[in-house]
Design goal:
heterodimer; A: 326 residues; alpha/beta; eight-stranded mixed β-sheet; four-stranded antiparallel β-sheet; 11 helices; B: 325 residues; 2 strands
Chain lengths: 326, 325
């Protein structure tokens, strides 16, 4: 069995605002083995990015991790002191952000931003650091990396900047990379290139990957497993094949049906009615209830996340079970 | 870069020419200096002689032409009152103003930026709020009143520092300045603080606003996600981006401090160019007024040029392009 890299147990991240407590992440659990790719899917505000930042210990006030455990190879990250956590950040667990135009510091050269990452975690002389930075750039497919090292971020295109960010994330050969919608801001063709590049690199290095996205088609091609989030909770999780091909939760099914290419031509596009509930006043019970075509009186209580099929869990009283199981 | 600087200097000459015309015409619109210069009981003949001696009998355009030809030779005219070259008088007084401005700017930078950073990082703490409240006072209390209070507290009540004047100058490497003697410093520190109070408040507020703007940026979070030490995140990633607008404003403020130290110099009887220009305006000493304004304009041009160059060093996205803009 592959080595267990990450174990998230009952993670709760709450934002304590003047208007009330926002439960951005409420009881989220999942595990990740070496080399495994997990797709974390959900719409804006479902808590998927906050989950990523919670693992990194980078939740900004007024938010904080209010409960649960994040075990990295058996060590609880939530209990670590800031300096110990810093040593893990960027070295053992790296992160790639959504908008490549904003993640690189505009006034520092690429080599500065790469070399500082190396020097933050190991004693290394300049020549060696520069060599490793150059190799990392070459690895992510940036042409003439020697000259590009001396460039500033604004001299790169969006796709190239995201490659630089990925190169920075890969510098220390981390065990886990958390990618927060890294292709959302890019052209489709560039998106494809980046996906290919990341897939290749994590496979080569055996890096585990959490790919946060709202795009199910990306997950379908990239991930081994999927966790679908809604209003701060995981509502369905399982292998890609199970979740995408045989969704159990009405929300997951709605998401899949909303992909335009799956609609027959000429018919009105399928949609999920209504909007996500305000995180400040979540109704009791299932948060999807108000938008759910299958809602019933029993949904006023919160369903548990149960493995209804082997390796395929769902948080729903009235799931779309296959005929045979019903 | 070189082409850029040459082009800017050429533009400066055009700016100077236009300024000289405006200033010359403007100065001629206010009063007749002869009325002030000669004794009230002078005869009409003496009066005519004085007018002829000062060249005031000639038409304005001819006076301007004489002024321009003299200017080309580096002659900015002679003071009516002191009967000495105007430029010489200004240059004599300039060091006093420069050292005042220099110390005031140092105070503004070395007090304002750290306080602004602190307030930016602790916007809701007691210390951060106190700093901001203090900066509002520094901003809004009239400058002359602050000066008077400083004199009252430190010179009159406590008796620690002299109330006015420039004091002894020391000599270092052949340069005479108040900065090189203890007595000079004791005279300098109060007016410098007075001049710096407003600038310090400005720098605090500007720095804080920029920190608040830079902190939530993704690149700061990314820097932390890379595992950088907090020190490095603050001192490099946050500070460098914060300082870009601060440098621009400081550059412009340096010009302002030199040009408009008038109030402070008057209150503290500091013998700088600010006091000279006020005295000259009272007696309508036209050549000094004109020469002063020309020197100030020249100074602003040079400071702006330096700021532009500095700006391109700080922010790589700004390149001093050689193409026509």
């Amino acid at each position: 069995m592959a080595e267990r890299i990450l174990e998230v147990e009952g993670l709760r991240t709450h934002f304590f605002t003047k208007g009330g407590v926002i439960k951005a992440v409420d009881d989220v659990s999942f595990t990740l083995d070496r080399g495994q790719v997990l797709g974390l899917v959900g719409e804006s505000g479902s808590g998927k990015s906050v989950t990523g930042f919670s693992i990194m210990g980078l939740v900004d006030p007024p938010g904080r991790v209010a409960g649960g455990r994040v075990l990295y190879r058996g060590t609880d990250l939530a209990g670590l002191r800031e300096d110990a956590m810093r040593r893990i950040r960027g070295r053992r667990i790296a992160m790639i952000f959504q908008d490549p135009m904003m993640t690189l510091n505009p006034v520092l050269r690429i080599d500065t931003q790469m070399i500082e990452t190396l020097q933050a975690h190991e004693t290394i002389d300049m020549a060696e650091a520069r060599r490793r930075a150059r190799d990392a750039l070459g690895q992510v497919g940036i042409p003439s990396p020697d000259q590009r090292l001396k460039a500033y971020p604004h001299q790169f295109s969006g796709g190239m900047r995201q490659r630089v960010a990925i190169a920075i994330a890969l510098l220390h050969h981390p065990d886990l990379i958390i990618a927060d919608e890294p292709t959302t801001a890019l052209d489709v063709t560039i998106q494809g290139q980046i996906l290919y590049e990341v897939q290749k690199l994590v496979r080569e290095q055996g890096t585990a990957l959490i790919w946060i996205t709202h795009d199910l088609s990306v997950v379908a091609g990239l991930a081994d497993d999927v966790a679908v989030m809604y209003a701060g909770r995981v509502v369905e999780s399982g292998s890609v094949a199970d979740v995408i091909d045989r969704p159990l939760h009405p929300y997951t099914r709605g998401l899949i049906d909303s992909v335009p290419s799956r609609n027959p031509r000429g018919r009105p596009l399928h949609q999920i009615r209504g909007m996500s509930p305000s995180p400040l006043k979540l109704p009791p019970g299932c948060a999807f209830r108000a938008r759910c075509p299958r809602a019933a009186p029993q949904c006023q209580a919160m369903p548990g996340l149960d493995a209804l099929l082997p390796g395929h869990s769902v948080r729903c009283f009235r799931p779309h079970l296959p005929e045979a199981a019903q | 870069m070189t082409v850029f600087i040459i082009r800017r200097l050429m533009q400066s000459i055009a700016v100077l020419a236009v300024t000289s015309l405006l200033v010359f015409v403007g100065v001629y619109a206010i009063g007749n200096p002869v009325d002030i210069l000669i004794a009230p009981d002078a005869t009409e003949l003496e009066r005519q002689a004085a007018i002829a001696r000062l060249g005031l009998d000639r038409p304005v355009w001819e006076q301007y032409w004489v002024f321009l030809t003299n200017l080309a030779e580096g002659d900015l005219g002679r003071s009516f009152v002191f009967n000495e070259p105007a430029l010489k008088l200004i240059l004599q007084r300039l060091p006093a103003t420069l050292e005042l401005a220099f110390v005031a700017m140092l105070i503004a930078v070395f007090i304002g930026i750290p306080l602004g950073l602190w307030a930016g990082f602790h916007p809701n703490g007691v210390s951060g709020r106190s700093i901001m409240a203090g900066s509002i006072l520094g901003f809004s209390l009239p400058n002359f009143w602050q000066g008077l209070m400083l004199i009252m507290i430190f010179a009159v009540m406590l008796g620690w520092l002299p109330a006015g004047g420039r004091g002894d100058q020391g000599e270092f490497l052949g340069i005479r300045s108040s900065l090189f003697s203890l007595d000079g410093w004791s005279h300098l520190i109060l007016p410098a603080i007075n001049l710096a109070l407003f600038k310090t408040s400005l720098v605090i507020r500007l720095t804080r606003a920029n920190v608040r703007e830079v902190l939530p940026q993704d690149y700061v979070k990314f820097a932390r996600a890379k595992g950088l030490r907090q020190r490095r995140v603050v001192m490099v990633h946050v500070l460098k981006n914060t300082l870009i607008p601060v440098v621009t404003v400081l550059g412009l403020e340096l010009g302002n401090v030199i040009a408009f130290a008038v109030v402070t110099e008057t209150i503290f009887a500091w013998p700088g160019i600010g006091k000279l220009i006020i005295d000259s305006i009272f007696v309508l000493d036209r050549p000094i007024i004109v020469a002063y304004l020309m020197v100030i304009v020249m100074m602003f041009i040079i400071i702006n040029l330096i700021v532009d160059i500095l700006y391109s060093v700080l922010d790589p996205r700004v390149r001093l392009a050689d193409q026509r803009a």
